[in-house]
Design goal:
FAD/NAD(P)-binding domain, two-stranded antiparallel ribbon, mainly alpha, binds flavin-adenine dinucleotide, 179 residues
C-alpha cells in the first residue's frame, strides 16, 4: 500500500520490490521476480453489460479491490452465465432475449464481492497506528479466536432478476426455471 509520503516512481522499482519482500525471507537467492508494478484498485461496474452483439465480462464489466480475491472469480461467473445463454441462442433454441438478463443477473451478484472487498480494504488499510492496534486487539484477532464475537456474516450473494424465478426470500426458487 502506498503511504502518503511515497510516490509511484519511488515504489515502482525492483529495489523497492525486494525491500518489501525481505521481511518474508524472499531474496534474489531464493526468489525470481517475474513482474512488479504499482496499480490503483477501484470499485466500479457498468450499468449495461450488453451493447447489441458486444458482451462485456470480467474486469471490462466490473473491478474491485483485491482484498477478497474475487476479481477473477467474478469474471469466471460472468463467463459461466454467458456461455449457457450463448449456447441456447447459437443452437437456435431461443432468440437472443436471454442475453438481456445477463446484465441484471450478473451485476446484482457482483455487487456483493465489490462491497465485501471494499469493506475489507477499509479494515486492512488503516494507517493510524492507534486505530490499527485497536482493530487488532478488538476486531480481527478476537474474531479469529472467537468467531461468535466477530461481525455477523454478510448475506449470501444472489443472482439479480433474470431468467430464473426468485422465491419470496429473494433466492432462486428451485425447479422454477421460466425460460
Ligand atoms: C494484485 C492482484 C491480485 C489479484 N488476486 C486475485 C485473486 O486472488 N483472486 C481473483 O479471483 N482475482 C484476483 N485478482 C483479479 C484478477 O487478476 C482479475 O480480475 C482478472 O485477471 C481479470 O481478468 P480479465 O480477463 O477480465 O482481464 P485481464 O486479465 O485484464 O485481461 C484482459 C486482456 O486483454 C488484453 N487487452 C487489452 N486491451 C486490448 C486490446 N485493445 N486488444 C487486444 N487485447 C487487449 C490485455 O493485455 C489482457 O491480456 C487480482 C488482481 C490483482 C491486480
Amino acid at each position: 500500500m502506498r503511504l502518503p509520503h511515497e510516490n509511484v516512481d519511488q515504489l515502482n522499482t525492483l529495489d523497492t520490490a525486494w525491500n518489501l519482500l525481505e521481511p518474508w525471507g524472499r531474496t534474489p537467492a531464493n526468489t525470481t521476480i517475474e513482474r512488479h508494478t504499482v496499480y490503483t484498485f477501484r470499485a466500479r461496474w457498468l450499468d449495461s453489460w450488453r451493447h447489441g452483439r458486444v458482451l462485456l465480462a470480467g474486469d471490462a464489466a466490473h473491478q474491485m479491490p483485491p482484498f477478497a480475491a474475487q476479481g477473477m472469480c467474478s469474471g469466471l461467473l460472468d463467463a459461466l452465465n454467458l456461455s449457457g445463454k450463448l449456447d441456447l441462442v447459437l443452437c437456435g433454441i431461443c432468440d437472443d432475449a436471454p442475453l438481456d438478463s445477463y446484465t441484471t443477473e450478473r451485476s446484482g451478484h457482483v455487487l456483493h464481492p465489490i462491497g465485501m472487498s471494499t469493506a475489507l480494504g477499509q479494515v486492512i488499510c488503516i494507517l493510524d497506528e492507534q486505530r490499527a492496534a485497536q482493530r487488532d486487539a478488538h476486531g480481527c484477532s478476537r474474531a479469529t479466536r472467537r468467531p461468535s464475537q466477530g461481525p455477523s456474516p454478510t448475506p449470501p450473494p444472489v443472482l439479480g432478476d433474470g431468467i430464473l424465478r426468485n422465491g419470496p426470500d429473494g433466492l432462486t426458487a428451485p425447479g422454477h426455471e421460466t425460460l
